[in-house]
Amino acid sequence: MKTQARLVTLLLVAAALLSTAGCNKLMARDQLNKGVQAYRSANYEQAIEHFKNAVALDDDLKVAKLYLATAYTSQYVPDVDTPENLRMAQQAIEEYQRVLDRDPDSVNSLKGIGYLYLHMKKFDQSREYYQKAIAKDPNDPELYYSLGVIDWTEAFKDAREIKAQYQMREEEELNAKKDAKLCELFKTKDGAIVDDGMTALKTAIDKRQDYDDAMVYLNLLYLRKANDLTCDDPQQRADDKAAANGWSDKAMAARKKKAEDAAKKNQGGIVLEATPTPSPQK
To answer: pLDDT band at residue 2, thresholds of 50, 70 and 90?
Structure first.
């Protein structure tokens, strides 16, 4: 009889636990839905509290963790280094990391961390997470674009800081004779970064033919190369300037085409598909 009584007690306890767990999951879903509603209304602080409640009630609710990380990210102001703002970014990173602890294949989490580190000016960490995301999803053009932005940002930062030491303007071209040592310094410091950025941006454009933002950054990298890295090679400098102008023209053409297509769509017209642009031969 005692054994039977113990068994009944255990079954009752198990049933109670299952009932509580099921109730918690329902309440977690309710908090998640309320958080989504608040988020869509741009009430981010309220949304954060609902998402935190959802995660506390159901630690397996991955979507709540992603929403919580996204809500923290929405509160973060890029490139502003105040303690409160950086704390918001760090909280977002921690929530994305909690998702990755359970699901290492979460590309959204990898992208989210890469984005935050980029705007916190932690370029090595940002590049690391974007590369991890590419390993999971090699067909996403935005990942390659982000790597190109990181490389341009680093190269631009170097140009600004080094030229300031020599009382030069950022856009000023180096002179082959007068600035030979400085030209060599730039090639050593940023040559590989510029080349990697160009490769990443061209890959992004290969995967999205009308990627105008990538074309703009490619234009900027070619200008950086022409101004500072090829001052000892006049022909190469001329070629780089021509390439920069070419990508600027392509970016403007792509934006014009998008604007025209959007206008036709808003007018209820028929938008004909553009003839696909062949990818460059490799």
So the answer is: low
Integer CA distances (angstroms), 252 to 75, 91, 190, 257, 277, in order? 32, 38, 27, 9, 16
Directed axis angle between helix 44-57 and helix 62-75, to 10°?
150
What is the predicted pLDDT for the residue at 173? 87
DSSP 220-264: HHHHHIIIII-TT-HHHHHHHHHHHHHHHHHHHHHHHHHHHHHHH
Burial class (CB within 10 angstroms; exposed 0-12, middle 13-18, buried 19+) of 250: buried
Distance of alpha carbon 139 from the chain centroid: 15
Dihedral of the alpha carbons of 251, 124, 104, 20, in degrees to the nearest 10: -100
Q: For residue 26, what pLDDT band results from cuts at 50, 70 and 90?
A: confident
* pLDDT tens digits, one per residue of 231-250: 889 999 999 999 999 999 99
Average pLDDT, the chain: 86
The yes-or-no verdict on residue 15 having pLDDT over 80 is no
Report the alpha-carbon distance of residue 130 to residue 148 in Å, rounded: 11
> CA geometry: angle at 22 spanning 19 and 24, to 5°?
110
Nearest to 66 by CA among 100, 40, 38: 100
Report the alpha-carbon angle 260-148-175, nearest 5: 105
What is the token pair recorded at 53?
A: 């409640």
pLDDT digits (tens, 9 = 90+) for 212-228: 999 999 999 999 999 99
